[in-house]
Amino acid sequence: CSGSRCSTMYSCLWICLIFAVSLFLLRFFLQENKEQQTEILQQTVQEQINSEISNHLEVFREMQKNSPLLQHANYTLLAGALPQEKKLLTVGISSMQRPQGSYLLDTLQSLFQVSSEAELKSIVVLVHLSDPDPEWLSQTVANISDLFDLHIEARKLLVVHGLLDDSPMRNINQYFSCEELYFRQKVDYALLMNFASNLSDYFLLMDDNIFCTPNFVSSISQALSAWKEFPWVILEFSSLRFSGKVFHSRDLSHLASFFLLFPKNTSAPMLLSRFHLLLAQNVPIHLGPSMFHHMGNYSDLEDTCFPVEKDKVFGEPDNPTAIVVTDMMFILNSVPLYAYVLNEEPYTTLDPEKGNHLTVILDRPQKIIRIVVLTGIDENGMYQLQKGRVLLGYDIMEHSKRCVRYFLLGPLVRGNLDQRVFYDEDSVEKLSCIRLEVSESQQWLVIRQIKVWTDPEDEES
Ligand SMILES: *[C@@H]1O[C@H](CO)[C@@H](O)[C@H](O)[C@H]1NC(C)=O
Ligand SMILES: *[C@@H]1O[C@H](CO)[C@@H](O)[C@H](O)[C@H]1NC(C)=O
Ligand SMILES: *[C@@H]1O[C@H](CO)[C@@H](O)[C@H](O)[C@H]1NC(C)=O
Ligand SMILES: *[C@@H]1O[C@H](CO)[C@@H](O)[C@H](O)[C@H]1NC(C)=O
Ligand SMILES: *[C@@H]1O[C@H](CO)[C@@H](O)[C@H](O)[C@H]1NC(C)=O
């Protein structure tokens, strides 16, 4: 071993030895009744969720009426067969003819290359070819079949062609205005999602010009399992317009209808950015790092009609000054602030219990745009927080240095969290507290680092 890892490991061992002796004594004396405080906090979070759900329920009921257009959708299976059992995840890709050729085959190649056999077992890849040109269709299907024969036979790859009856776009494959492009795209996605709605539990939307990060399937499925007990509508695994957005399959038919409800000149990205609001998810949920990247652009028209997609680049974290409080037993010279100060020292604690917390209380409210929480002695190492969540606190009480309102940011995924922080459009409220909470008792916990990025454009900070 070397460097910081080495010293971390030795200090853990050393602390461990010394502490084994006093452990028994401490355990009995330091036990405090945290139950009540935790209950109040959980209640606040639950109330927040409930009130948001009832606010949006009415609007959503309207959306639930399936679009009559989709009832007459007509699909042709071009290659592959429906999977025999329900999968965890459908990767849905819609592709159309492009004058200068498409990246569809490269996208599929990337997807299958970075996924292991075990990962492929839990997914089905659904390609929707949306162009009416029969020659292009048969050539594309032939090309896909050539390259991915095995995956087609294993029912992991399915190619379909769908049509809305009487679709005015039926015979058009050249677009001259944004309005035409928006409409075509919404119809394509509606057809794709409508078909996918009972193939799996979750649905991942992807463009046909994408590089995938290795083992994205595992990363997404770990996140899905951590998020299982929390409400969400869209989990975003990249900052691209479409690619990397994951939905519950049960929402797909509503989303498909939602796409077709609006006038031609509303774009699909605009609608997507509103859809989560209808189902009571107030701000986007964006998990880092980005797992999907573009391999190329298509047309000038698309560039004109859509805002430029760029992965947000973050520099180094700039943790603003704060105090750190905790109700977890700390060990000898390990102080809670170590978890927050940008140094190599972790904060090590014994036997944290459900409801225990470590809270960063900022000296001044800040507009924070990203938070990373790392636990365990190193990446995938020991003493991670097995089950925990991060809450964002507002309204600090000056005298007691506590935040009054907390909102869920997200659960830890495999002991870590990396999330962007978004703000309601009309709210200018800044954050005052970041609270890491233990959701399940465990032995030993190392909180390695909490990293915070503030908004560089926030004038006052
Ligand atoms: C569905 O589409 C296929 C091929 O495009 C066509 O032959 C068939 O008649 C259509 N079925 C209905 C019910 O519209
Ligand atoms: C199919 O593959 C051939 C040979 O690589 C290529 O020339 C053709 O453009 C491809 N067609 C489509 C529609 O992808
Ligand atoms: C999905 O629904 C269609 C039509 O209702 C049915 O034919 C198909 O078997 C279903 N697929 C799965 C995976 O349940
Ligand atoms: C779409 O068109 C309608 C009427 O044609 C217009 O009122 C509306 O502002 C347009 N919306 C956008 C986003 O361009
Ligand atoms: C795509 O276009 C954007 C802006 O139009 C440009 O910044 C980006 O580099 C292009 N990407 C590729 C891979 O060509």
Automatic annotation (TrEMBL):
Question: What are the record keywords, sorted?
Answer: Membrane, Transmembrane, Transmembrane helix
Which Pfam family, any one, appears in the UniProt record? Answer: MGAT4_cons
- Per the UniProt entry, what is one GO biological process? protein N-linked glycosylation
Q: Which InterPro entries match?
A: Glyco_transf_54 (IPR006759), MGAT4 (IPR057279)
A GO molecular function assigned to this protein is:
acetylglucosaminyltransferase activity
What's the domain of life for this entry?
Eukaryota
- Positions of transmembrane segments: 12-30
Q: Where is the MGAT4 conserved region domain?
A: 52-311
Q: What is this protein called?
A: MGAT4 conserved region domain-containing protein
